[in-house]
Specification:
Blueprint lengths: L1 H30 L4 H5 L13 H9 L2 H32 L5 H11 L8 H10 L7 H24 L4 H8 L4 H12 L1 H16 L3 H6 L23 H34 L3
Length: about 280
């Protein structure tokens, strides 16, 4: 009887978690199919009286979806590639080389995880204006790389420390260089944590708005979160189109996360527990 009570409480807790996680998605989907009158009527739990699928068509055309999507894909892809290359090399150096200040370097990266992004906006604005890269994609990519590096180095270094050194020693005896060992042995073995870093970086950069709003002013360079403002005018707001655009913007993240969610778990366990 005690076991059944505990089991029932566990299922109840899981049900509450599932509802609290899925309800915002359901609410956003219903929101995107309503008219302004239904949305402003205050019936948050009601389904749309008429399913306005034309909201998605209007969001696609009026929100410049393809242009903003292309900018987001470019910025996110470049950031992910740079983060993977740089963080994997740093993690390998910290984990394998006997560097005098190796622990101090790792501590610097760990401290970097605690710095809020908002605290760096003003100094970054002055630096980017001085080097004349303000209002370019480079003004987004550089800080994105810097802020994603700490967690990436933390995950990858923990995994690399768990890799036996015998394979590297054998390759070194056969004449392989450090770069060849890193490219042919370390990187292929580190695919699980690398996938975790890729997914976490993708989710973070795809939804980032504060830096993009601060450093980008040109309409042709804006990323996907800016599309929401296409439906806000001086005298009116099209809430249904905003909801549809938000669904279209969140769809790639949700899809990729559900497809690769098991790799996130495996990579985090490999990087945190084995290390």
């Amino acid at each position: 009887m005690k076991f059944n009570l505990v089991k029932g409480l566990v299922f109840l807790l899981i049900a509450v978690l599932v509802v609290t996680q899925l309800y915002p998605l359901f609410w956003l989907l219903a929101y995107s199919l309503k008219t302004n009158e239904e949305i402003l009527g205050g019936q948050f739990f009601a389904l749309p009286a008429h399913w306005r699928w034309e909201n998605y068509q209007e969001a696609y055309h009026n929100g410049h979806y393809l242009k903003y999507l292309g900018n987001s894909v470019f910025v996110t892809a470049v950031t992910m590639i740079c983060v993977i290359l740089l963080s994997s090399m740093v993690a390998y150096a910290i984990s394998r080389f006997k560097i005098r200040f190796g622990p101090a370097v790792m501590l610097v990266f760990l401290v970097g995880m605690m710095i809020p992004m908002q605290a760096t906006l003003l100094p970054l604005m002055k630096i980017f204006k001085f080097i004349d890269i303000l209002n370019t994609h480079g003004a987004l990519i550089l800080p994105y790389i810097a802020f994603q590096m700490p967690i990436a180095v933390f995950i990858l270094s923990g995994f690399i420390k768990s890799i036996p050194t015998e394979m590297e020693e054998s390759a070194f005896i056969d004449g392989a260089s450090v770069y060849r060992i890193f490219r042919s042995i370390i990187l292929p073995i580190s695919i699980p944590p690398v996938m975790t870093v890729c997914i976490l970086t993708f989710i973070t950069i795809w939804n980032e708005y504060i830096m993009a709003a601060t450093f980008i002013s040109s309409e042709s360079l804006k990323t996907l979160p800016f599309g929401v403002y296409s439906f806000v005018s001086q005298y009116s707001v099209n809430y249904g189109d905003i909801g549809a655009f938000m669904v279209m913007g969140a769809a790639p993240v949700i899809l990729i996360y559900f497809i690769l969610s098991d790799k996130i778990t495996k990579g985090m366990v490999a990087g945190a527990v084995k290390g």
